[in-house]
Specification:
Length: 410
């Protein structure tokens, strides 16, 4: 490998320019072998990202699993029959495919943790089983891949035609390569350290006893697919378990009874420790109690978008007013007129849920003051009170009313 000075810094001798000028002229569409090799490698990587299907973690049929193909848009949803399946659920599958085809739901779902993508041959069978294609998603994905290949190939070929050899680099190119390498190494190291910090926090919070921590792989979708669902992009914890470096806690589920029985660690210690979970945007406690509220009184409120309460012994909920960025708020088994609740102005609240028989006049008047409110869910095991629904529709004409299953009430 040889290094040449940057052309914008060091003057090139006349003889060197003449040497480049005497090189045979190549036509626009006659690319160097090095460019073709790079494009072939890039095409292989894009194929690993685009073609294999990933098993979804948020959908379940007894006899079928749902797979999604495509990036950044889903261009194929495919149901795969399990080996021991029967044909009993085929009508349900066909009905569901008809429904999603009509809605054109082409946003990717979360991949099932621990599953593999391109290393499983069965994930490449795009034209088998039961599936629905999305035409515009196919066109968009194909266009994006072609654009990536054209840009990368054009840049590589432009650089190659200015060099006698592919391995001839300028100082500026070496500096850029070193900078990019340093950024990648620093990002990888930071991700590994964050995984280890979150693992330590889960140990302090006695995961499974005091709290639960639902997690997700937050790495970019293309990187997850390229590394076979992050199988080749993992960090080893002190316990010896390997997890993807993008694995992050996104929700805290607090068990107040466990906290009350254990007594240790203290709510303040727990709150400080939970600050290491930097991707958390949801907190819930089912059932809850006063210890949970002590934690929320100290927890940083800026990142929380969703709060859910299922109280049994709580009386003071004034801590809710701290969470001004919350977008979804749910209360169960609570009379807001009886407990300590300031009815705060939550400027970003969009969804509110409460037991149907708890919607008092004061609660409805408070809902009128919320500028971004879009959805209200009166919760009931049985049939909803029709008078309450009519009252909510009159008082909140621009708000969608949904039942506990998410169905819109007309």
């Amino acid at each position: 490998m040889s290094v040449v000075p940057s052309q914008d810094v060091v003057e090139t001798p006349l003889s060197s320019s003449n040497d480049l000028a005497t090189q045979p002229h190549r036509s626009t569409f006659r690319w160097h072998p090095s460019t073709i090799i790079i494009l072939l490698c890039l095409t292989a990587c894009l194929s690993l990202i685009e073609v294999p299907g990933q098993t979804c973690n948020d959908y379940y049929f007894r006899d079928f699993s749902l797979q999604e193909h495509g990036w950044p848009f889903v261009h194929l949803k495919r149901f795969v029959q399990r080996p021991s399946t029967s044909d009993e659920e085929l009508p349900r599958v066909h009905a569901y495919l008809t429904e999603i085809a009509a809605k054109d739901l082409s946003n990717p779902s979360e991949a099932k943790p621990g599953s593999v993508l391109w290393s499983d041959v069965s994930n490449w069978r795009m034209f088998s089983d039961h599936g629905v294609w999305y035409r515009w998603s196919c066109i968009a994905n194909f266009s994006i891949c072609v654009a990536i290949c054209l840009v990368v190939g054009g840049l590589v070929e432009w650089r190659r035609r200015r060099r006698k050899s592919f391995l001839q680099f300028s100082l500026s190119e070496l500096l850029l390569a070193m900078s990019v390498t340093g950024l990648v190494v620093a990002a990888y190291r930071s991700a590994v350290q964050q995984v280890q910090r979150e693992a330590a926090t889960r140990n302090v919070a006695m995961e499974g006893l005091l709290m639960d921590f639902p997690s997700r792989d937050l790495s970019p979708g293309w990187l997850v697919r390229l590394t076979d669902n992050s199988r080749y992009l993992q960090a080893k914890l002190d316990s010896g378990v390997s997890v993807p470096i993008g694995w992050r806690v996104v929700e805290i589920k607090i068990r107040d009874q466990g906290l009350s029985y254990q007594g240790q660690p203290s709510p303040l210690e727990l709150s400080k420790s939970l600050e290491e979970l930097r991707s958390v945007n949801e907190i819930s406690h089912w059932p809850g109690g006063p210890v949970t509220l002590k934690i929320l009184n100290h927890y940083p409120p800026e990142r929380i978008k969703k709060l859910s309460f299922f109280p049994t012994r709580c009386t003071d909920f004034r801590c809710v007013s701290r969470f001004t960025n919350v977008e979804s708020l749910t209360f169960r088994r609570m009379d807001l007129d009886a407990v300590k609740f300031d009815f705060p102005l939550l400027p970003k609240l969009q969804k509110f849920g409460l037991d149907d028989y708890r919607f008092s006049d004061r609660t409805i008047e408070w809902l009128k003051t919320l500028p971004e409110l879009k959805e209200v869910s009166p919760w009931s095991v049985g049939e909803l009170d029709k008078e309450l629904i009519a009252k909510l529709q009159r008082s909140l004409p621009n708000v969608v009313i949904r039942d506990r299953l998410g169905n819109t009430i007309r």
